[in-house]
From TrEMBL:
Cytochrome c domain ranges (all copies): 19-103
The protein's name in its UniProt record: C-type cytochrome
Signal peptide positions on this chain: 1-21
Native species: Duganella dendranthematis
Keyword field: Electron transport, Heme, Iron, Metal-binding, Signal, Transport
Family matches, as PROSITE patterns: CYTC (PS51007)
Domain of life: Bacteria
Pfam families: Cytochrom_C (PF00034)
Family annotation (InterPro entries): Cyt_c-like_dom, Cyt_c-like_dom_sf, Cytochrome_c_Oxidase_Subunit
Amino acid sequence: MIRIALLAAASLMVATTAATAAAAPAISASARLAATCAACHGTNGDTHGSTLPRLAGQPQQALSTSLHAFKTGQRTSTIMTQIAKGYTDEQLDLLAAYFAAQKPGGVK
Ligand code: HEC
């Protein structure tokens, strides 16, 4: 009896895992890239009560300019040059577009 219950539980877990995997493509490539930034800039770039700049809702061009300037060292920074260097120019543009599209004050 216990064995049957365990088997049922195991197959349920497999089914759940498959369902999760199938839902994965709903997360865009830019959202995946942007997840790395959340530790410092808040969920979706929406910092609350932090001294770090809020990225959510900034103009795309401003974000893009900053990111490229960090990468080249044109804009001085404590950490962002190191981070920006890890991305291609195309990825930096994707990140700028992603954060520009986020609503500031959207995440509580
Ligand atoms: C370890 C913490 C940390 C992480 C992770 C981080 N940032 Fe930053 N970010 C900072 C700090 C600190 C600044 C202020 C400039 C500096 O000192 O580097 C900043 C500034 C910025 C700015 C300039 C904003 C403005 O209004 O002047 C942009 C744009 C930015 N970060 C984008 C990103 C993106 C995109 C990512 C993810 C790929 C990211 N950051 C990840 C700490 C971080």
